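Q: I'm building a small set of examples for a reading group on sequence design. Run inverse folding on the following structure and report the sequence directly after it, with nothing in between.
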């Protein structure tokens, strides 16, 4: 791993939607991080992987919290543009938004502010 700032930039280049916090960096440095965290600075995560990461970060083993399943991943640009695809993701996005609101803001080294 690079230093925190270097890793944050690499993660941002592939997954700009994610705030790369010091906590994520420390977990990756420890060598105990799940494989999916190792890919953050290598490539954009697939939609299924985004769903897996959200479960890992916000739910873990807590069975009292439910995050709707991610719908299928579109395989073509035509499918991506379909309104039904967006509608299928709506329950997941709304549930995720509620979970994110409960979390403390984290420093984003790229935006240079708490996000």
């Amino acid at each position: 791993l690079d230093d925190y700032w270097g890793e944050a930039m690499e993660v941002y280049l592939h997954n700009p939607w994610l705030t790369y916090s010091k906590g994520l960096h420390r977990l990756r440095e420890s060598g105990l991080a799940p494989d999916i965290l190792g890919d953050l600075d290598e490539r954009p995560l697939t939609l299924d992987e985004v769903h897996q990461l959200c479960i890992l970060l916000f739910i873990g083993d807590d069975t009292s919290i439910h995050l709707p399943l991610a719908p299928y991943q579109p395989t073509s640009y035509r499918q991506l543009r379909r309104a039904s695809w967006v509608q299928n993701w709506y329950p997941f996005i709304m549930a995720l938004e509620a979970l994110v609101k409960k979390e403390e803001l984290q420093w984003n080294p790229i935006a240079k502010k708490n996000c």
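The chain has six helices and two strands.
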